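fyi for ur records
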Amino acid sequence: MAHMEQNSLYDRPDLYNLMAPQDEILERFYIETARERGGRVLDLACGSGRLTIPLAQAGLDIIGADLSSATLESARTHARVHAVEPEFIELDMRDFDLVGQTFDTIIVAMNSVLHLHSLDDFRGFFGSVGSHLSPQGRLVFDVFLPNIAMLDSDPNNRRLVGRVVHDALGIVTVEETLRYEPLTQVSHVDWYWSTETEKDFWRVALPMRSIFPQEMPLLVASGGLRLIERFGDFDRSPLASGSMRQICVCGL
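which gave:
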């Protein structure tokens, strides 16, 4: 299976972490969801342990996994600072085999599933997850609900993503452009980073797949899983036309 292109955003955990601040509502949802089943948890595309660490602090038996070794090093450091020591392992979520290990909950949070682009990617991902779920286990993930107006935006138009404060660089402004490719359903997003003295000191590509609501059950089924329920937000409200995200619960 082709190796996923290393995304340079994740090679700079100091900058990436500023754009993924703590979100207690998201944390509570995943902690409660994992506790419902008890047992072991696998946090795929765990990044710097943004969710792995709160889940470990909540007493869950959790492993964090990611493709980026730089990000995993950052995760291990953060975990030590927070006095927890979950295991962190490097893997490609489209094709992995943790020899005989199974999990009661497998999590892929914060749109990370959208780094998968092709049908082969999804088939490999859902298939690999399925072979690591316990019989009553669940895969739980959240992704954007595609917004047609946003996908139709002018690719030359820069939109402010946010301003953050970096320890060494001071105030950093992040802007984005978006070019949507309708045949692949991939949004080619570019993030531009500027300090007060240096405009565009860093640019990073962040291609993200759109998964439309009617397509989701078919992608899940392509890897041998089934979509059991879907929420429109972390408060477990039903998926509706005005929802911003699709939160999916899948099983064998």
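Residues 1-7 have pLDDT under 50 and may be disordered. thats all i got for now
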